[in-house]
Write a structure and sequence with these properties.
Layout: H1 3-12, H2 14-21, H3 25-36, E1 47-54, E2 57-62, E3 66-71, E4 86-92, E5 95-101, H4 102-106, H5 110-114, E6 129-135, E7 138-144, E8 146-153, E9 159-160, E10 176-180, E11 183-186, H6 188-204
Parallel strand pairs: 2-11, 5-7
Antiparallel strand pairs: 1-2, 1-8, 3-6, 4-5, 6-7, 9-10, 10-11
Amino acid sequence: MNEHLALTFVSLSRSQAQVFEQLSDEDFWHYATEAASPPRSLPRLADEYLVCKLGIRYCMLPLTSLVEVVPSPHQLTLLPSAPHWMLGLTTWKSEVIAEIDLEAYLWSSVEFMNKITASTPIQRPPADLLLVVHAQGVTIGLVVTAANTTVRFDSEYIVPFELAPDWCLALRPEGIRGVLDDVLVLNIPAIFDDVVRQIKEQSLS
């Protein structure tokens, strides 16, 4: 065994050096190889979510998609023929983003949408907060009633949307990953895809 290595091990642990002296060359180099290998990856941490209030219900979205939480702006640029849940355009840090009423978007059931026309817009109370969210290379603002707290849990505990309570039947299924303790777990990438698609379709109609 190399003398320098032996001295190094003695300086770390005399009892450990005694064990090493009894190892065969093959066992020693096997141990050295294992010790030099990079540590195994740690178990995946539970995902962290922001819990928000939507009227009388609650939802949560992953913090990885959240950029900033700001007061809902009072000045909006309205667009003709925009979906009823799109409140307008606003400016965030010199960037123009769409402002989406998240509650109106999620609860856009077929029966509800059939009652809406361009001449009868929804009258809603002003919301408190704007969640600036980035996904799919796009930044939009999601208007919520309030932001409550952050929670951390593993996604395996989410109840699939197909098994959600009856009150979820009026929701857009593509926007919901599932439910956890009566809190909606949002599917942010799917919401972004659907929002962009509907805005484009409305602008072309």
